[in-house]
């Protein structure tokens, strides 16, 4: 059974980001997927229905929400994940499955029958959604992520900047597709995920009390393009 985790999001400016990165680099190890430049590129393709339910539920602040997406890293098809992200009153969890490049393209093209034969729950859930014909890819979301971890408390801190989106969802695997900025260049998104509690030394490191928590969604930011 999936375990819910706590999640905090904040919008930060470039000065905040520089201060935080300087502190985090001194204290916490970086995520193992961090590239030589200090970040990795995350690229996602989000799904929604004809009524834009996932978008509207986020905008109205629904207590329970779920989103489906396909995700790749560093403009490579070596690892492609299908993910279902569930949020429930400030807590959340993810279910995931690995896709081949061919399966990924099939989903983009609306060929989803293979999902019903996959063992992972997320595949069966997406199959149920897509069989209506009204649940389809909506938008590309891409950003550069700096990630830090503290294993004893399963704490993960990420800073996402250069948030961009593409106008054509079907071009997800074409990494040369031009993208448009969806967030101001002087703004980034800070996320903190943890299990039962956030250790005090991590909270002090980030100085949570000096920043305002916000219900930020990169998916929502990018849907303004279509």
TrEMBL record:
Coiled coil: none annotated. It comes from the Bacteria. This is VTC domain-containing protein. GO terms for biological process: polyphosphate biosynthetic process. It comes from Dehalobacter restrictus. InterPro entries: VTC_domain, VTC_sf. It holds the Pfam family VTC. Residues 5-222 form the VTC domain.
